[in-house]
Specification:
about 230 residues; alpha+beta; 4-stranded antiparallel β-sheet; 3-stranded antiparallel β-sheet; globular
Length: about 230
């Protein structure tokens, strides 16, 4: 009897191990680095004047990858991209998959809702807590963007452990708009927001550009000087 029980459990353990290995292999196959050669196409944001940021869309099998463009993410994990990318021109986009640093609205949906979202065109990776991150963009074999290099100052950036601030952000006295950020000092921040739910994570690794920090400090000094003298 004991021998039969051991054989049954042994078979179950083997099947479970094979299943887990299959899942791991599937994840490695699906979420491995990819290169997409495609025209730069942007999804509309509903802004007729073009003042709002855009979303870059890239074909990925039967799905579409949606990547934020032109604007910072409040959680600090968004990468800026070069302004010389021309819509409609073909580029070579090099991407990797990374775990989302904050939960998305798709992370806890039911299977029924998931099917509904998939039918509406929401990509599968959104439900797996993964997101595509561009590491490099080439135009005719010439690198026009590389992650870790400041788009404004053209120098390698530092990777720092930024403090995560949870709860309602108080903001700063002078806040630059996203256009000023993108064109003058996109990587000046040393802190990121963590949302309203406090998590065990205390810091998050981000890219920081010292020259962006200097440029922001100069801008902030000018703003404060203008306020003290009453000039706009």
């Amino acid at each position: 009897m004991l021998l039969i029980v051991m054989k049954v459990f042994g078979r179950l353990f083997t099947e479970l191990l094979v299943c887990c290995m299959s899942i791991a292999t599937y994840a490695e196959d699906v979420y491995k680095p990819i290169v997409i050669n495609a025209p730069a196409e942007f999804a509309p944001t509903g802004s007729e004047t073009g003042d709002l940021p855009r979303m870059l869309t890239l074909p990925f099998g039967e799905q579409i990858l949606w990547i934020q463009w032109d604007t910072p993410d409040e959680y600090g994990d968004f990468e800026y991209f070069p302004k010389n990318i021309q819509e409609g021109e073909v580029y070579s986009f090099h991407l990797v998959w990374e775990k989302e640093t904050h939960p998305s609205l798709f992370s806890s949906v039911s299977e029924k809702d998931k099917k509904d979202y998939l039918a509406k065109g929401v990509p599968e990776y959104c439900f797996d807590g993964m997101e595509p991150v561009i590491t490099k963009i080439l135009s005719n074999d010439v690198v026009v963007y590389e992650r870790g290099v400041c788009e404004v100052h053209g120098r390698p950036m530092q990777i720092i452990d930024a403090e995560i601030e949870y709860g309602l952000p108080l903001g700063e006295e002078f806040e630059p708009d996203w256009k000023l950020l993108a064109n003058s000092f996109p990587h000046y921040k040393k802190r990121v927001l963590g949302g309203c739910v406090v998590m065990p994570e205390k810091t998050r690794r981000i890219y920081y550009c010292p020259e962006c920090g200097t440029a922001h400090a100069r801008w902030l000094k000018g703003m404060k000087a203008g306020k003290s003298t009453g000039t706009p």
